[in-house]
Amino acid sequence: MATDYDTPRKTDDDVNEDSIEELKARRNEKTTSAVDVDEFDQAEALELPGADLSNEELSVRVLPRQADEFTCMSCFLVHHRSQLAAEKNGNPICRDCAA
What we know:
InterPro entries: DUF4193. By secondary structure, the chain is of the alpha+beta class.
């Protein structure tokens, strides 16, 4: 049998390509099965091995506020006086809260 080498040949890619109408029809047929799951709920249910710290005691040495420190009346953290930005109504405010 003679083969005409000038005729266009269909490749596997051409055979597998679908028309735009077929692709649109397939897209419309698909239903969305994605479920909106809150990541926080998933993480809350996750239990890590060795994570039970209920019988552990922590010992932390707490120091009283020093003379060169102040308590920010916005975030209630103790800062060094170099972090003092302003005073609102006589209450000290740190640089982070003032920004």
